[in-house]
C-alpha cells in the first residue's frame, strides 16, 4: 500500500489534477485551503510515469454517538484525469483507503457521493440528508423576544476561536456532530468568506449564526443557540437584512424537518436532498463502542462485506459484548455492510429494512426484534461539515 501514498514532493502534481478534474481556477486562496487539507489528511494516488492520474484523500475526524466518540475518516476529492477513466483506479484507491482506515482503528467513514450506486458497491449507504429552506425576505417575520440580548456581527475568521469554544461546549456533545479539531476550524477560515452573528447575555456568548450574502440572497450555513429566545434573536438579526436581499436561505443537515423559520411554513420552499453516505469500517470496534439504549439479550448478526473481509462472519451482539462465532447458519439478522450501516447509523428502522429486503431475519421473536430496534438511535446524524 505504501506505493499508493502521496509523497510531500508530489503535492503540486496533486493540485494540478484537482484543478483539472473539478474545472477549478487556480487562485491563491483555493491553493491555500487545498494544501491545508492535504497536510492534515492522508492522500492515496496512482501515477503514470511522473504524472498523478488518480487520487483521493481521507481526513481524520471524530463523530459523537451518545457518550462515545468514533474515529471517522472523511473521504473527498475522488478524482481521475478523464483520459484515464474506466480503468478502476478510483475503486483501487477507495479500497486501499478503507483498508488503511481499518488498520488504523477507524470505526466509520463518510463521503459526499457523485453516484450512490457506485459507492454502494463499496459498502456505503445513504445516511444523512440536506434540507434547504427558502423564503422571500419580506415574509420572514420572527417572533420578537422580550429580553433583548446583545448581538454582534463580525467576520468568521476574526471570531473563529470564540465560535469554536462555544461549539465544543454546546454542540459537539450532541449526537451526530463532528468533534471539530483546531486544524479543521482553521481550514474553514481558509475556504470560506463567512460572516457571523453572535448573541450574548450579560456574561457570555449563547449562540451564533454563520452566514454569507450572495448577491440577492442571504444564506445561513449554521445556527447554534442555547434556547428559543436566542434562536429568535438570531432570526430577528437575519430579518433585518430584508431591505438588502430578496431571499433568505437556511441550510440544515439533520434527518428531520426543522422548518420553524416562518410562522407560515407554507410560504417557504423546502428542498430535501441526499447528502452524505456512510459505512462501518470496523464492525467489531463500532459495535463494542455503540451506546445501545436498552437491553435486548443476545442477537446473532451475519455481516457481508465484499471490501473489508475482517467484518465478515457471524457476530453475537449484546448490550455489553460482541464476539465472533463460527456457526455459519446460526444467524438471526443478516445484511450487507451498507444496509447494516444505514440501520446502526439511524437512517432506517429494522422493520423498514426488513420490509424492503435490505436486512433478513430468522429464528428471532417479535419481542426481541422490537427491543433490538429500540436500542438503536434514530435520525442521529446532523453534521454539515463538507469534505
From TrEMBL:
<feature type="domain" description="N-acetyltransferase">
    <location>
        <begin position="1"/>
        <end position="152"/>
    </location>
</feature>
<dbReference type="Pfam" id="PF13530">
    <property type="entry name" value="SCP2_2"/>
</dbReference>
<dbReference type="Pfam" id="PF13527">
    <property type="entry name" value="Acetyltransf_9"/>
</dbReference>
<keyword id="KW-0808">Transferase</keyword>
<dbReference type="InterPro" id="IPR016181">
    <property type="entry name" value="Acyl_CoA_acyltransferase"/>
</dbReference>
<dbReference type="InterPro" id="IPR036527">
    <property type="entry name" value="SCP2_sterol-bd_dom_sf"/>
</dbReference>
<dbReference type="Pfam" id="PF17668">
    <property type="entry name" value="Acetyltransf_17"/>
</dbReference>
<dbReference type="GO" id="GO:0034069">
    <property type="term" value="F:aminoglycoside N-acetyltransferase activity"/>
</dbReference>
<dbReference type="InterPro" id="IPR025559">
    <property type="entry name" value="Eis_dom"/>
</dbReference>
<dbReference type="InterPro" id="IPR041380">
    <property type="entry name" value="Acetyltransf_17"/>
</dbReference>
<protein>
    <submittedName>
        <fullName>Putative acetyltransferase (Putative)</fullName>
    </submittedName>
</protein>
<dbReference type="InterPro" id="IPR051554">
    <property type="entry name" value="Acetyltransferase_Eis"/>
</dbReference>
<dbReference type="GO" id="GO:0030649">
    <property type="term" value="P:aminoglycoside antibiotic catabolic process"/>
</dbReference>
<dbReference type="InterPro" id="IPR000182">
    <property type="entry name" value="GNAT_dom"/>
</dbReference>
Amino acid at each position: 500500500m505504501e506505493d499508493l501514498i502521496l509523497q510531500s514532493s508530489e503535492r503540486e502534481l496533486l493540485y494540478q489534477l484537482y484543478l483539472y478534474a473539478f474545472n477549478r481556477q487556480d487562485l491563491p486562496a483555493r491553493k491555500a485551503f487545498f494544501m491545508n487539507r492535504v497536510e492534515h489528511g492522508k492522500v492515496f494516488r496512482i501515477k503514470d510515469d511522473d504524472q498523478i492520474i488518480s487520487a483521493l484523500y481521507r481526513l481524520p475526524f471524530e463523530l459523537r454517538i451518545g457518550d462515545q466518540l468514533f474515529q471517522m475518516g472523511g473521504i473527498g476529492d475522488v478524482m481521475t484525469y478523464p483520459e484515464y477513466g474506466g480503468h478502476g483506479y478510483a475503486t483501487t484507491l477507495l479500497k486501499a483507503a478503507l483498508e488503511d482506515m481499518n488498520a488504523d482503528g477507524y470505526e466509520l467513514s463518510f463521503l459526499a457521493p457523485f453516484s450512490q450506486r457506485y459507492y454502494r458497491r463499496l459498502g456505503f449507504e445513504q445516511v444523512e440528508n440536506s434540507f434547504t429552506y427558502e423564503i422571500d425576505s419580506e415574509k420572514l417575520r420572527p417572533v420578537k423576544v422580550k429580553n433583548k440580548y446583545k448581538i454582534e456581527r463580525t467576520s468568521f475568521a476574526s471570531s473563529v476561536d470564540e465560535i469554536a469554544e462555544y461549539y465544543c461546549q454546546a454542540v459537539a456533545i450532541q449526537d451526530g456532530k463532528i468533534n471539530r479539531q483546531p486544524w479543521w476550524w482553521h481550514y474553514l477560515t481558509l475556504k470560506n468568506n463567512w460572516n457571523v452573528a453572535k448573541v450574548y447575555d450579560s456574561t457570555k456568548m449563547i449562540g451564533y449564526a454563520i452566514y454569507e450574502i450572495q448577491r440577492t440572497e442571504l444564506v445561513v450555513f449554521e445556527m447554534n443557540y442555547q434556547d428559543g429566545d436566542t434562536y429568535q434573536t438570531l432570526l430577528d438579526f437575519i430579518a433585518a437584512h430584508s431591505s438588502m436581499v430578496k431571499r433568505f436561505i437556511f441550510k440544515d443537515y439533520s434527518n428531520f424537518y426543522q422548518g420553524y423559520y416562518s410562522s407560515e411554513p407554507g410560504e417557504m420552499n423546502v428542498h430535501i436532498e441526499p447528502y452524505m453516505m456512510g459505512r462501518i469500517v470496523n464492525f467489531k470496534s463500532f459495535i463494542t463502542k455503540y451506546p445501545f439504549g436498552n437491553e435486548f439479550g443476545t442477537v446473532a448478526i451475519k455481516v457481508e462485506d465484499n471490501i473489508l473481509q475482517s467484518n465478515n462472519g457471524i457476530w453475537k451482539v449484546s448490550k455489553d459484548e460482541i464476539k465472533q462465532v463460527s456457526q455459519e447458519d446460526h444467524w438471526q439478522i443478516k445484511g450487507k455492510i451498507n444496509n447494516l450501516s444505514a440501520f446502526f447509523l439511524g437512517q432506517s428502522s429494522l422493520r423498514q429494512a426488513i420490509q424492503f429486503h435490505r436486512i433478513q431475519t430468522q429464528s428471532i421473536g417479535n419481542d426481541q426484534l422490537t427491543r433490538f430496534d429500540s436500542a438503536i438511535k434514530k435520525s442521529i446524524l446532523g453534521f454539515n461539515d463538507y469534505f
